[in-house]
Amino acid sequence: MSPDAQRAAVLALHWQVNVIKPEGFFGPMLAEPVARSGVVERAARFHARAGVPVFFTRFTIPEGEGGLVRNTGFMHAVGEAQQAFRPDAPGARLIPEVTGTAGTVVDNQKLSGLAGNDLAARLTDQGVDTLFLTGVATNLTVEQTARHATDLGFTVHVVRDCVTAADDAAHTASLANLDLTTAGCLTAEEALVRLHGRS
């Protein structure tokens, strides 16, 4: 294991039924492009091979709405459908393809996986300073989390072939933004070389 790997973790963002599967809340928008991209299988392989802690974030809404703030159209929409996002609702579950690599699951009610929870502090307490991001959607939670983590002082790499979006153009534009606003996007193979010196 490289010195970098000893201080690294994977943030696996929104690999849950509501986002990935046709029956989920965002299924009409995301299920088909996710399936077409093959991203689930690539991300599951990367999570299994990374050899560092994997932290899964879930967007959930507990009774009383937790930290949800209805200040965007997105948050208004999920707030109106909050029963589908209860922590024990079928749609809130991680998809079965990734559950074998789920080390730690963290819930929140924000677009950034590091907002509205103590995950950033937990990572820092564990000596983590480098994050590799996977998830859906590239231009939403992935980009928001990557920018947030960078501002918090983490070195951030989005794993470009382990993320996708509803729209190919939005996905490509988001990756271009992230190449500028983070430590740079990497393929899964490039990330594994960075972590272990080999793919």
List the helices and strands and how they pair.
Blueprint: E1 8-13, H1 17-20, H2 27-37, H3 39-50, E2 54-59, H4 73-80, E3 104-108, H5 119-125, E4 130-136, H6 138-151, E5 155-164, H7 168-181, H8 188-196
Parallel strand pairs: 1-2, 1-4, 2-3, 4-5
Helix pairs in contact: 3-8, 6-7
- Which whole number gives the mean pLDDT? 95
Main structural class = alpha/beta
Instruction: Find the CATH topology.
Output: Rossmann fold
Could you describe the largest sheet, including whether it forms a barrel? 5 strands, parallel
CATH superfamily: Isochorismatase-like
| Domains, number | 1
Tally the beta strands: 5
CATH class: Alpha Beta
Q: What string, H for helix and E for strand, traces the elements in order?
A: EHHHEHEHEHEHH
Low-pLDDT windows of residues: none
Q: Alpha-carbon distance between the termini?
A: 12 Å
Radius of gyration: 16 Å
Overall, the morphology is globular
Q: Tell me the fraction of residues in β-strands, as a range.
A: 15-25%
Helix content: 25-40%
Walk across the major sheet and give the strand order.
3-2-1-4-5
SS summary, helix count:
8
Which second-level CATH architecture applies?
Answer: 3-Layer(aba) Sandwich
